Amino acid sequence: MKIILIIFGCIVSYTSFAQQEIKIEDAIYHVGDSVKICSKVYGGKYLPDVKGQPTFLNFGGNYPNAPLTIAIWNDIRNEFEEAPEEFYKGVQVCIVGKIVLYKGKPEIILRNKNQILSAVKNEEVIKRK
User: Which of 28, 52, 60, 88 could disulfide-link 67, Cβ–Cβ 3.0 to 4.6 Å?
Assistant: First the structure.
């Protein structure tokens, strides 16, 4: 039993360490890294007529100059109680994930809604349902 607890502790420590917190403007320098970034969502767009029905959130700035895009495919979008492009607009959030490049710009693809760790709207922490 002690060995299991030690292994679990090592895994938790490694996972916490692996996701370093970075500034939004440094996202381009961390392609391939798992990171934590906190910034404001400036807006977003849902594309229901495109394959995979993606939602894109402009993180840290307005489109097309946002330093990071958050991509949410329809299967993950369905996990949200409200449309993410509307719910998170103007909200300060922290997100974790691996940065990838899409057409030369940094992006994090959400694999589940729990990658959004916290959100603050009008100085109140938003609690998930």
Answer: 60
Taking only the tens place, the pLDDT of each residue in 41-93 is: 999 999 999 999 999 999 999 999 999 999 999 999 999 999 999 999 999 99
Query: Angle at the Cα of 105 (from 103 to 108), degrees rounded to 5?
Result: 110
User: CA angle at residue 45 from 42 to 51, to 5 degrees?
Assistant: 150
pTM over 0.70: yes
**How far is Cα 26 from Cα 37, in angstroms, rounded to an integer?**
10
Tokens for 119?
Answer: 């959100």
Return d(Cα 109, Cα 114) in angstroms, integer.
12
